[in-house]
Amino acid sequence: MGGVKMSDYAQLTHRLGEARRVLFPAEQNFLGALMVRSSAWDEATPLDEADFSDELHGKIYRAIRTLKTEGKESDIISVAELLERWGDNELPYLGQLASATVGHVVPSLNTIKRYNMLKRVVGFAHEAIAIAVQQDDPFTLAEHIQQAAIQLTETAHVDEFRHVSDTVMTALQDLDRRYHSGNALAGLSTGFPGYDSRTGGIKPAEVTVIAGASGMGKTTFAYNIAEHVALSGKTVLTISLEMSDVQLGLRHLASIGGVGLPEMQSADVPENSWSGLTVATAKLRESRMYTVNASSLTPARLASLARACKRKHGLDLLVIDYLQLMSSEKRNASDYERTSDCSRAVKLLAKELNIPILLLAQVNRSALTGADKRPQMYHLRDSGGIEQDADVVTMLYRDCVYNPQTQMRNVAEIITRKCRMGEPGTDYADFEGRYSRFKAKPAEWVPEETVELKVVNDGRTIKSGKFGR
Predict the structure, then answer these.
(1) 394 pLDDT tier (thresholds 50, 70, 90)
(2) What is the pLDDT of residue 151?
(3) Using a CB cutoff of 8 Å and minimum separation of 24, what contacts does 399-408 make?
(4) What residues contact residue 283 under an 8 Å CB cut-off, 6+ apart?
(5) pLDDT one-digit tens code per residue, 39-80
(6) Would you tell me how many other CB atoms lie within 10 Å of the CB of residue 305?
(7) Cα distance between residue 338 and residue 331, in whole Å
(8) What pLDDT does 209 receive?
(9) Is the predicted pLDDT of residue 235 greater than 90, yes or no?
(10) Which site from 96, 120, 214, 433 is most exposed, i.e. has the minimal number of CB atoms within 10 Å?
């Protein structure tokens, strides 16, 4: 290893100065977002007043934090009134901050945190030099530097510790918001009422795994949810590793326009169906639905795409099709290691961006053996740590795939095997394959349990029938 020159420390200090150039506008954008968007506070991890390079910015943040702690709104007027009680009249500048807000809160927050961490690293470097100059005993020197390094890493994670009262207050505020808004769901509606009631909707920072054997309709189900969310005014990003743009486009047209896939595949669309395609195209054009057709996808590439989408367009839901096709950052990783690394990265990304993620996954071949082919949780065990990383695991099953004579020919079972904040169980939907869509069955619908009952007399069947419940 080469020796460390004084010019290296000068270069490190120079980097700190360069980072400071983007810090001031990041602080402005961060504070403006906290006052303009009430939801921005939920996306931000706590800071200290001293983390801001500008004294006034620190005071404004303290005012916002005080209002939020008291359960009040942190709009411009409320912040200005509190600052005025503290002896500062800053209403004009607060208006300037609000008008200068150009993006989401997380990138600006990360800029502030990176600068403060870099400032601590530079301070650590100078402190290490000072200790080395004053200390003759190399073992004592090493101990001093080790203690300083421990303190440095502890400050990097200080924001991970929150008092339980803070988390309870956050939960109560969320409950109060949903109670008074009339929207009981904690997350986004999927368009399947029974499933929403069971899971509470697809919630920020959570990963919902949609699993099943090939041909069960995982992609169709996930994209139906994506369409529902996008057409309700939210921003959705779908990343497909399996289908082309044309295939994805035709699925959307079939689902929303009600035009059969076979007709579109053969370009034999009836005259009266073109209006449906026109309506579907108009709806999708007005939506905020974005798609990436990726030939390969590593966790780093996934994070880059999601962050870019959130920065440019906002992001309320991310759909990944599917886990086993993702690539690992590691060379020579086993399939188990690869899927474990990827599922963990997906969970961390959901928490970082505070968004729900739908992650599609194949079940292993053992699900195809046995009389009952409904997938179970253990059919995911060869798929790395997905069982642990997922907040919700939903498995699809259509009996007609294996039993063509079944009485539930077009019925799909939406089986929720794991739900951290809800109740596992089964919901039902009609599968309309030609239109690439599922349609939820009424909540009171239950499948018939049909059995063949024969009354035999002297070897002759004298009564036969099917009896349902």
Answers:
(1) very high
(2) 63
(3) 401/213, 401/215, 401/216, 402/373, 407/447, 407/448, 407/450, 408/447
(4) 231, 256
(5) 787 777 678 888 898 889 999 999 998 888 777 888 999 999
(6) 17
(7) 10
(8) 95
(9) yes
(10) 214
Which of 2.40.128.50, 3.40.30.10, 3.40.50.300, 3.30.420.10 would CATH assign to domain 193-440? 3.40.50.300
Count of residues in the chain: 469
For domain 6-160, the question of CATH label 1.10.860.10 is answered with: yes
Do residues 118 and 139 make contact, with C-beta atoms less than 8 angstroms apart? no
Q: Is the peptide bond before 322 cis (omega within 30 degrees of 0)?
A: yes
List of residues 6+ apart from 210 with CB closer than 8 A:
218, 221, 222, 358, 359, 360, 361, 394, 395, 396
Cβ count within 10 A of residue 401: 17
Q: CA triplet 255, 256, 258: central angle to 5 degrees?
A: 70
Helices (H), 236-320: 245-257, 261-265, 274-286, 299-313
Mean pLDDT of all residues in the chain? 81
Going 143 to 146 to 150 to 151, the CA torsion angle's sign is positive
